[in-house]
Amino acid sequence: MIRTERIDLEPAFVLHSRRYRETSLLIEAFGHDSGRLAVVARGALRPKSRMRGLLQPFIPLLISWRGRGELATLTAAEAQGEIVPTQGSATLIGFYVNELLLHFLHRHDPEPDLFETYRRTLQRIALEEDPEPSLRIFEKRLLQATGYALQLEREAKSGARIVPDARYIYRPDSGPEPWDPRRHSGAGISGETLLALSEERLSKRDTLREAKQLMRRVIFAHSGEKTLISRNLWRRRRSSDAA
């Protein structure tokens, strides 16, 4: 007999939702103790539903649910604290972060530390003038939590320590190797950038630019080389702003 699980008042965020039948929603959520989970919010779109308008991304929630198997039933939801004030580019970055979680998290794998990192990241991208450093740190911690930790302090093959003034080529499946202009295209990545990302101190513009390029390649490789929808939206926004 399959046991029915009941969870009450778990801190959570909605990652994605879509309409289910006439008045319900299918929701992918990220819970502090449950990890990524799928729930159906029955009647959530009815005019008198207490959950109407609440089950949206970036709203800190306390959720209660019960169920057996992959799809549970949401029984209650209430706001916990203040809504994260996302708007403009911060909203697109938030959707990108949510999409990363949907790509990399397996259902029902608890990730309480990553949950706290996610919560703080949402606050920072909404409030910081430059959200890029916080975004890079989130990407790094997400990869580490899901089994794709970056090798940033030593060379992949030799084990030699990374030298700040040297340049490297980074292999997503193994790590950094010495950059050779005779064999490698591009300019590689500096040891300074690798060490700065390891220590999470991304204050220099050149370091931040290289870290962004590195994370883009690594995430693309580990996500099955899928182009993220939110990244395309970001490119379109930037093209529109430039026009």
Explain how this protein is built.
The chain has two domains: 5-79, OB fold (Dihydrolipoamide Acetyltransferase, E2P); 89-242, de novo design (two linked rop proteins) (Up-down Bundle). It contains six helices and eight strands; from the N terminus they run E-E-E-E-E-H-H-H-E-E-E-H-H-H. It has helices at residues 89-104, 112-127, 132-145, 191-199, 205-222, 229-242; strands at residues 5-20, 24-31, 35-41, 61-67, 71-79, 167-171, 175-178, 189-190. The strands form two sheets. It has a five-stranded mixed beta barrel. Strands 7-6-8 form a three-stranded antiparallel sheet. A hairpin with a 3-residue loop joins strand 4 (61-67) and strand 5. It is elongated and about 65 Å long. The model has no long low-confidence stretch (mean pLDDT 88).
Q: What is the fold's blueprint, element by element?
A:
Blueprint: E1 5-20, E2 24-31, E3 35-41, E4 61-67, E5 71-79, H1 89-104, H2 112-127, H3 132-145, E6 167-171, E7 175-178, E8 189-190, H4 191-199, H5 205-222, H6 229-242
Helix pairs in contact: 1-2, 1-3, 1-6, 2-3, 3-5, 4-5
